[in-house]
Specification:
837 residues, 13 helices
Length: 837
């Protein structure tokens, strides 16, 4: 297993140290308040050991959270899904650049991975990219999953997962048809689920145990066969069928009831769903041995007490620890006879907290979840330069970002602008706020997660507590941690680079061959490396980053007369074991119908419909630019139009690349051919997404080159970062299909052509240039549903940033969504409107 470098260890330690300091500051400040009413809150030794174990767990195994901001909730075949990924420390939510790569997958409803992307950071801190949907993709529900290899050390439930609907009006609806009158979808899946009447109800006593002789709250949750909440009502009866109380769900299948259980009795719930079907569920056994934590929350305080069997006074000392996202923020001892304790929420961050009641042996006696709503959200204010906009009008938006204390923040975030005519954003679905603060810390599916953060919802506290009663926090095995058995996350090492590993063995015995030289050749002469096998014949090499679809020829040393075999271990990825919960139908079906038609028309305009008639205007599609297609496919759309291009005709006449480049305007080569400049600056030289030097140019034969682009304008080189400020020379090598056909060389057992999953380059979102009058008058309709997407918007030291884009053709309103995280870990979530007349 690989070891972590000393620099990386220092980076990890620094971030985890901040987390632990943050936690103990909270413990100290909260205890100051608690001591005013409960002077017994000095940390006893048993609590000190428990807190040490909990903080050591975070230090030994810091976890990552990933959130993806995508540009819209549903798509059409042939479109692009634009995304920005945020990686944060799972405990304090500060940006945490731990793993080198994030894997983003598109998964269908059968839990099959349709497409996988490997994303590396741009400028070391920002992960973003796109997923191109095939015109032939089957219509239906999909989900997007994102994770790092290091995250495989925890449960798959804590991978990022978000469902999306993908329609296809390009090749028919694949079994799903739209009713022309209602616009509703009818599918075999929907019909099948309508025929299934099964539902399930679970009951959760507050504190985990049903305690005899106490008036106790019991939460319950009912779900239908498809995993979504369903309304139920019913009554609680004892073993003699005597009615004890009635109950009724109040929020997506969840509800609460109050009852006083008696020792020696058993209780059942007779439940009925909204279709009149009933079932009987046994409640947990009544306990005369356990304790149960109960909690009441006010705007300023959290009041905690302990239920004892038949309400008898306690004779033992107990201990309370409160964890916020796994980090201890409060502790107290509960002396014999004490009813409970109160503590202030002042200064506590928002998130899921876990109350633990311990005995002197640090064994958990009771557990209670709660959600703490703190004042720690960043404030983003967006101001438009006009009250409304016309067709193809310029939009200038000014942004001011401040933290929760009103101080300007120098940070970055992502912004999407969507047309409300086509895209109906459900205010109750996942946002960065709902995901990081709620969904990412609870195991299981959370329905309508942003409902709990909607300011218009007046019952947030009550409904959130229903959720806390029926969910659980399981990022760490807390009982094991309290016993000093830490989860160290060693099953999947941290991925800080790309590694090829394998074995060289004799054949057919397959015994490992030590000290065998293994060579790696990339892109013919464009990359070369070598390593040696160990005593058992194994080898491992950290190789330079290459874009996806790069072929690497690997060859083991073969001595005359020897029979050897080279085995290269392929990339492995986690299976999809957790099924996403999909609704029977898609919401806003009328809007979806119009969206699909508009997407289909836009696709035809861009990709090959010969002619389209619109209101007596005949429009002929533009000729496909083959060079642009090469740039989009192989450079990931890093730029759209170069300043100068050498095509096949120019390359066929060139003797070498250095002499050819001298012919480009503004390009200068030194007399000895050792340096090159563009407008007196040293350019970045790229060969098929790989950075190269001037010396490498002399090794490339012009006959092996497909095209060369020269980029001089800063607007063309912006996606290359600071390295591209002096210009870019981008060289595209011919692919195998572009070269002359040759007889394939037979490969020996000591050779393997390996194509690892390489990184995917982000493309640039197309923004029409309507400042040019010719473009404004273009008769081809502007049918964008995502009007604007910018994955990285940076605010300056004053918290200010500006964005510019152009409106499309259809009047209506646009939704502007900004999401991100500040350097201090505060969440950025903004949603506003733009009027288009």
């Amino acid at each position: 297993m690989r070891t972590v470098s000393s620099d990386l260890k220092f980076k990890i330690y620094s971030q985890v140290k901040k987390s632990i300091i943050f936690g103990f500051v909270l413990i100290f400040s909260i205890n100051l308040f608690a001591q005013e009413s409960a002077p017994d809150t000095s940390i006893p030794k048993t609590n000190e050991i428990a807190i040490t174990h909990l903080t050591n767990q975070i230090k030994n195994f810091p976890q990552e959270k990933i959130y993806l901001h995508i540009d819209k909730p549903y798509y059409s075949a042939g479109e692009r899904i634009w995304f920005r990924a945020y990686m944060v420390h799972a405990t304090v939510h500060t940006p945490f650049y731990f793993s080198r790569y994030i894997y983003v997958e598109l998964i269908n409803a059968h839990n099959e991975v349709v497409l996988r992307k490997k994303i590396r950071p741009i400028d070391e801190t920002q992960f973003f990219g796109q997923i191109d949907l095939s015109p032939d993709i089957a219509e239906g529900w999909y989900s997007i999953r994102a994770y790092t290899k290091f995250m495989q050390n925890i449960d798959e439930d804590y991978f990022f997962r978000q469902r999306v609907f993908i329609g296809n009006s390009l090749k028919g609806l694949n079994g799903i048809t739209i009713d022309e009158n209602t616009g509703s979808y009818n599918s075999d899946f929907k019909k099948a689920t309508e025929q299934k009447a099964d539902f399930d109800v679970q009951f959760f006593p507050e504190g985990g145990h049903l305690i005899a002789g106490n008036l106790q709250m019991v939460g319950f949750k009912a779900i239908s066969k498809n995993g979504l909440g369903t309304d139920v009502s019913g009554r609680i009866v004892d073993e003699q069928n005597k009615d004890i109380c009635t109950f009724k769900s109040s929020h997506i299948g969840m509800g609460i009831l109050a009852m006083t259980p008696e020792a020696g009795k058993t209780y059942s719930a007779i439940c009925e769903n909204n279709r009149g079907l009933s079932m009987t569920v046994k409640l947990p056994e009544v306990s005369v041995q356990h304790y149960a934590l109960v909690m009441k929350q006010s705007p300023a305080l959290i009041n905690v007490s302990v239920l004892t069997p038949n309400a008898k006074p306690r004779t033992d000392t107990l201990y309370l620890i409160v964890n916020l996202r796994g980090l201890p923020i409060f502790q107290s001892s509960l002396l014999p006879g004490s009813a409970g304790i109160s503590f202030s929420k002042k200064g506590v961050s928002s998130g899921v907290a876990q109350l633990l009641l311990l005995n002197k042996n640090d064994e958990i006696l009771s557990e209670r979840m709660l959600y703490i709503s703190g004042e720690d959200k960043a404030n983003l204010n967006l101001t438009l330069d006009k009250p409304y906009y016309m067709k193809r009008d310029a939009v200038h938006a000014t942004i001011v970002l401040k933290d929760s204390k009103g101080n300007p923040v120098e940070g970055n975030f992502s912004i999407s602008v969507t047309d409300d005519n086509d895209v109906k954003i459900d205010p109750n679905e996942t946002t960065i706020e709902s995901y990081l603060l709620l969904q990412s810390d609870l195991k299981g599916y959370i329905e309508n997660p942003n409902w709990y953060f909607n300011p218009a919802n007046k019952n947030t506290s009550f409904q959130m507590d229903l959720l806390m009663l029926t969910q659980g926090w399981e990022r760490y095995d807390v009982p094991a941690v309290l016993a000093g058995n830490y989860n160290k996350g060693r099953g999947f090492p941290l991925e800080q680079g790309s590694i090829i590993s394998g074995k060289v063995q004799n054949f057919p015995a397959r015994r490992g061959l030590p000290k065998n030289n293994v060579t790696f050749l990339v892109h013919k002469k464009m990359g070369f490396d070598m390593t040696t096998t160990d005593y058992h014949g194994y080898f491992s090499l950290k190789y330079p980053e290459y874009p996806d679809s790069t072929k690497i020829m690997i060859q083991a040393e073969k001595k005359p007369g020897a029979f050897i075999e080279l085995v290269v271990y392929p990339d492995t990825f986690p299976k999809v074991g957790v099924s996403c919960v999909y609704p029977d139908d898609i919401k806003q079906n009328l809007a979806m119908k119009g969206f699909l038609k508009k997407s289909r028309d836009r696709y035809y305009y861009q990709n090959g419909m010969k002619s389209v008639t619109l209101k007596d205007v005949v429009i002929t599609a533009k000729k496909v630019d083959k060079n642009k297609k090469i740039r989009d496919e192989r450079a990931g759309g890093m730029y759209s139009y170069p300043s100068y291009t050498f095509d096949q005709e120019a390359l066929s006449k060139a003797t070498n690349l250095v002499n050819l480049l001298m012919q480009a305007p503004g390009v200068m080569v030194s007399n000895n051919g050792t340096s090159i400049t563009i407008r007196n600056n040293t350019p970045l030289i790229m060969v098929d997404n790989m950075e190269c030097t001037m010396e490498d140019l002399s090794t490339i034969n012009p006959s092996d080159v497909q095209m060369i682009d020269i980029l001089k304008d800063p607007s063309e080189t912006i996606m290359f970062g600071s390295k591209g400020q002096g210009g870019v020379i981008y060289i595209y090598l011919k692919r195998m299909e572009d070269r002359e056909a040759k007889e394939p060389e037979e490969m020996g057992r000591n050779q393997v052509e390996y194509i690892p999953l390489g990184y995917s380059l982000p493309a640039e979102f197309y923004v029409p240039r309507y400042q040019v009058e010719e473009n404004r008058q273009d008769p081809i309709p502007d049918l964008r549903s995502t009007i604007f997407w910018k994955p990285v918007v940076k605010s300056n030291a004053n918290g200010q940033a500006d964005i510019f884009f152009y409106t499309a053709d259809t009047p209506g309103t646009y939704t502007i969504t900004a999401e991100g995280i500040t350097p201090g870990g505060e969440i950025i979530h903004y949603q506003g409107k733009l009027n288009r007349k």
